[in-house]
Amino acid sequence: MQFDVQALLKSGVTLTDHALERLLPSPDAPPHSIHRAMRHSTFAGGKRLRPILCIEAARMVAGNNSLDHAAAELGAALEMIHTYSLIHDDLPALDNDDLRRGQPTCHVVFGEATAILAGDALQTLAFQTIGDLQIPADAIVAILREVSSAISTGVGADLPGGLPPGMIGGQVMDIEGEGQKPTAELVERIHRAKTGALIKVSVIAGGLLAGASEDSIARLATFGEKAGLAFQIVDDVLDMTQDSAQLGKTAGKDTASDKATWPAVFGIDQSIHDADELVADAFAALAPFGEDAAPLKALATYLTTRTN
Amino acid sequence: MQFDVQALLKSGVTLTDHALERLLPSPDAPPHSIHRAMRHSTFAGGKRLRPILCIEAARMVAGNNSLDHAAAELGAALEMIHTYSLIHDDLPALDNDDLRRGQPTCHVVFGEATAILAGDALQTLAFQTIGDLQIPADAIVAILREVSSAISTGVGADLPGGLPPGMIGGQVMDIEGEGQKPTAELVERIHRAKTGALIKVSVIAGGLLAGASEDSIARLATFGEKAGLAFQIVDDVLDMTQDSAQLGKTAGKDTASDKATWPAVFGIDQSIHDADELVADAFAALAPFGEDAAPLKALATYLTTRTN
Prior knowledge:
The structure is a homodimer. By secondary structure, chain A is mostly helical.
């Protein structure tokens, strides 16, 4: 089936942006500075990948779009978390990035103090949004557990004393690894934690919202994990092969700082091959959903064939 | 009744510290730096005021200590939030404090990047801990809503477009107000948001954990609000009248930076009078609980008569 992925993306962005508009405090609500900072970074042209995955997972499990309103609010919470992590990551003490998606970063516009607190507040608002979802309490608690674990300090349960991979854990490993020659194991571990865990949980959360069975959740988790890793590999390749204007952010920065990236370790050809293989695995996990899986599959294909 | 408040404090600290020890990732779990930073600040000699209020509120409503285990874990979550806010507040871009409770602050020991992420991770772990409480899902959701609202960007629902007072809102107002002559209204607003909201919700959360009625929650909220404000007023007075060695932090800093404090606006005598009156109001709210309220009352008295 030919699937109109552009229409799907557009509808997902609209749903998400409406939810964010409702949920974020007004720029005129006191204290203004932080509310404006939160909105500046949240409405800076993100792809809304995580919300769209959440919405499409909920639609696939429900078999219709009756849960769109709640799924969009949950997706907005995931986008708030993503935005908080970007604001803090861009700070002078961390990546020291002045430009993100073609816009000046939060601390450049609002100062460091407000940027730190705006990131904090977005994390808080994400959990507040999850708590306020109009779904059964059991589902809220299940989502709360999965999301909080996915953005925690874990780097991999296979390590001695290790916790399941989590977003902050990935950021810490990324910082610690800078300036060292990256190994294949380290790169994969950072990717799974830093960006993979939140993408994976976006798919899981959409499924939990729609009351998916344990087996369906496991399949969604596999899909999210594989597609998320493929997305990150393609991101790394684009950083190496495109210029700043095309990317809307400082290109080649990963290479310059010896960041642990996939193509730096495996080369560009192998990276593209790996991404393709991961997408095939992601597709396989959704086989039992038949035609209902078409939107999620189209999304995964789009994410790994994009050019910016 | 003569109440042994020292024994109560000691038992509360022990319960809380055991819960924190269980819940915080091991210092040997990778990535080490952030886990050590989280523990450094969490175990830096805090009074555990918020957990103790939570535990005692749960005991009062339950009429016994059967909920101590869950209440201590919830209290530990509140302490993680308190610690996260202190770590970020101490950063060079905010208050730039090198010393807290007689110990070097998080960024002094671990660097700014790790301190920022350790604060982030403590907020996340707090919500993860709330999600993992072994209590009915309805109670978890009620606690999640109250706690996330209490640490949000609100500064007061009485302002045009204003949200209920929240911890981050208070921090922003505090920063924005620095260098200006504080007014009575601003000082009260900042106190209610910056420290008051988290103290108040600690009492509310303990009540929700124990399944308190709506009327009991309203009474606990009044108690928490009044006692919390009294506590902060006494804190301001101590900052003005004691030296750094007695306080374990840089004394007189509030005055030096024209911080909005109670004694700066009302004078020391009036401040002490106000604190006493607030404690009387706090006591009155708990009248229907009779003798069961003795521990919470003893705590409020202790907090406003302490000397450090």
